[in-house]
Write a structure and sequence with these properties.
411 residues, alpha/beta, Purple Acid Phosphatase, chain A, domain 2, 2 domains, 6-stranded mixed sheet
């Protein structure tokens, strides 16, 4: 499966770079050293991206910055150039029509000046040179058009990527959402849950990232802290020190964790032990009672490949259905199963809000909610953008986020 994915990725990367080479190099240069340099870059850069995708998974983290930054820049170059294809095609058609009209127009009658009456026509001045052929004009215009498009695409991609880096590496914004629960007892009205997901400690985010998130959560004065998966992209040996500030999380009722898909890629069992030692309790297909509220957690669906998948029947078996239940589940898609078990509110992450527009359109094909609060099959689900990033250190249209969820009683 992994080999098949790598082969597919290499083919796609190769095709993308071939397209970029055509638009940015071949169409904008004449044969010579610049075109040769562009050809070399078109070979080296996809290799860099492929090496980064593999290398960062096996501890070669120095590849992360150049590889992932180019991946983001490549993506926005691709998007911009594709969007320019229609106006570029229209401009080329216009140039072709102009050339045909010029070729079809009758040549102006030549009037000779200075010839004697009845004598031979005068010769043109020796310094007169023939006009350039129409094809030369068209080639020059096409070259100018291609260079203009390439410059525009380059400036746009660099600007968007730069903005995205600043957003991704900056402090998460705080989102506050109030969620009414019909079954919530009046005594629990105003219960506050600090929700964070997708912290993604790894090659580009470490100790200071965790410290900042812990400080933000502690300032919320929450009753419960919920970490809903994708905490890490690496082993306990690699990232244990970066996760250590989690022991300083403060809340009235405790801090809880459910697995995300990246925990299973990073060695989930050692991480569960590590989090327990840090005072963050994993909820492993289980629920607990907090006064008049049930707090539950299920494993991520990726755990099925590791014999550790979600078990909703175990989690909700024998539950008092008169009590409201809040479920922690990494992926929003799990809401369909949650609704069958009468869950009142599901808290999720995983989507990153799309992370880089227009990726949110692709995420929406897989997940019922990309970000924010929605109701699916009668169950409310809130999806946070997450506090970190995966892959490129870039966020466009989906800023990093930590959320304060306030539960309110109805009536």
């Amino acid at each position: 499966m992994i080999v098949g994915f790598l082969v597919f990725a290499v083919v796609v990367l190769g095709l993308i770079h071939l397209y970029l080479w055509k638009r940015l190099v071949r169409d904008t240069t004449r044969p010579g050293p610049w075109r040769r340099a562009g050809g070399i870059a078109a070979i080296v850069l996809p290799v860099l991206v492929a090496a980064t995708l593999v290398g960062t998974r096996v501890g070669v983290w120095w590849l992360a910055w150049p590889g992932y930054l180019w991946l983001a820049l490549m993506f926005y170059l691709l998007v911009t150039l594709v969007l320019l294809e229609i106006p570029m095609l229209a401009a080329k058609i216009w140039l072709r029509v102009r050339r045909r009209r010029a070729a079809a127009a009758p040549a102006p009658e030549r009037v000779e000046v200075g010839a004697a009456v009845g004598g031979p026509p005068a010769e043109p001045p020796a310094s007169e040179t023939p006009a350039p052929a129409p094809e030369d004009h068209d080639n020059s215009r096409r070259l100018l058009l291609a260079r203009g498009a390439a410059i525009f695409a380059g400036l746009t991609a660099a600007s968007v990527t730069g903005y995205g880096v600043r957003s991704a590496l900056g402090p998460p914004q705080i989102d506050r959402v109030r969620v009414p629960l019909a079954k919530l007892p009046r005594s629990m009205d105003g219960t506050r849950i600090a929700l964070v997901s997708d912290i993604h400690l790894g090659p580009l985010r470490g100790l200071s990232h965790t410290q900042r998130i812990v400080s933000m959560i502690n300032d919320m004065d929450a009753d419960v802290v919920a970490v809903v998966g994708d905490l890490v992209d690496g082993t306990v040996e690699e990232l244990g020190a970066a996760a250590a500030p989690l022991r300083d999380l403060r809340s009235r009722r405790g801090s809880f964790f459910v697995t995300g898909n990246h925990e299973y890629f990073s060695g989930y069992e050692p991480w569960l032990d590590e989090l327990t030692a840090l005072g963050v309790r994993p909820l492993r297909n289980e629920r607990l009672e907090i006064d008049g509220l049930d707090l539950a957690g299920v494993n991520d669906v990726t755990g099925e490949d590791f014999d550790d998948g979600p078990d909703f029947a175990k989690t909700f078996g024998g539950r008092d259905s008169s009590r409201p239940v809040v479920l922690l589940a990494h992926q929003p898609v799990q809401v369909h199963e949650a609704a069958k078990h009468g869950v009142d509110l599901q808290l999720s992450g995983h989507t990153h809000g799309g992370q880089m527009v227009p990726f949110h359109l692709l995420v929406a094909l897989e997940q019922p909610v990309v970000n924010g609060l929605a109701t699916i099959d009668g169950t409310q689900v809130y999806v946070t953008n997450g506090a970190g990033f995966w892959g490129p250190p870039v966020r466009v249209g989906a800023p990093p986020q930590v959320t304060l969820v306030e539960l309110t009683a109805v009536g």
